[in-house]
Amino acid sequence: MKVLGYEINRYKRNKEVEQPQQEINSNSNSKFNNGLLFGSLGGFSSNSAMRLSAVYRAVDLISDSIAMLPLEPQITDKNGYKSKFINHSSYNLLNKQPNKLQSRFTFIKLIVQNILLQGNGFAYIVRDGEGNAIRLQYLRPENVVINYNEVTGTLSYGIAGFKKFVEPCNMLHFKKYTIDGVQGISVLQNAYNTLQISNATEQSANNFFSNGCNLSGILTVAGQLSDTQKEQIRSSWAQAYNSTGSGLAVLQGNMQYSPIQINSKDAQLLESRQFNLTDIARFFGISPVLLGDLSHSSYSTIEATMLSFLSQTLQPFLELLELEFSNKLFRPSESNLSVNFDDTKLIKTDKTALASYYQNLFNCGVLTINDIRKDLGLSKIENGDNSFIQLNLSTVNNIVESKTEEDKTKELKK
Length: 414
Description:
By secondary structure, the chain is of the alpha+beta class. It folds into three domains: about 1-215 and about 260-340, no CATH class; about 215-260; about 350-414, no CATH class. Helix content is about 40%, strand content about 15%. A hairpin with a 5-residue loop joins strand 5 (about 120-125) and strand 6. Helix 3 packs across helix 5 and helix 3 runs parallel beside helix 9. The longest helix has 30 residues, at about 300-330. It starts with a strand and ends with a helix. It comes from termite gut metagenome.
């Protein structure tokens, strides 16, 4: 049976997809068309948005912060304890190189960028004959068609160049904002009006200066002027105040110079641009401080900003990525496996916070000396695998019993 030019067969989890046999016209079939439902409105697109410095910085900051974190498979034992599963076949895919073209950093960064700018991030899972993932193939959102039947609840994906539909178990589909649970919505779609205003403001500011409107004064001429004199004044003025010139035109005759204060602030450009930055930051869920706006910042503000960024901005992204990897990457028999980011790397640039983190875990007996040295990239030391706890802590019952024994000893001595 063929639908939209596809041959529909049940796609097996443990078999690789057939080689591409026909091209899919994604522009006509895709529901989201490059992830931007408003892409044709005013000629605004994700590329246009990325030319706005605030959008570029927000996307780059979020995607870089997530891409730099190690991504590793973990196994959970019968007692609920998790440990890193280095020997699993997916370890290198997740932590080093998911495919021949991209490193882990580039792969994750692309996925997060697609989620933010286009609403959906896709990667096709290529499996061997036993169902093990052997490659994670990054897919551009415009090359994927989402096929969802609301009546039957069935979902499949069409990939440009692939003959058969792909089942959800073999497609990593990342989305953060959605209204139907199937198709993602980009930040740009929600922030369309703000981005249009911001783009128009930047163009106005550019036109303001490029058209020679950064004037410092006006020349008033008394009396009538001949055509030659007018041309002389016009030529001298243009030479002094055009987009490449500078300085004050000095002319002969009865002229008076009156300074004026026409600048971008008077035209409310600075205020508009400042508001646009704050509004864009609000849509991306980050503080304006992280976009370079330090006008109202202090040390305490920056510290609180970083905590908010880690807990409210990055953590939801980490959670959605981990769940999608964990739910689809492994075979059904590997339900005790999961994928997790090592978010401790986020504090490794803050040496004070890092030292406090390790000290607290060491004092509680959670980490050994060699555990800490391993995280820091140092070699093992002898007798470094012992756990330590502080002796000056005890339970209330032990303290009461100790006090009772002490009193009994004193009574016997009497």
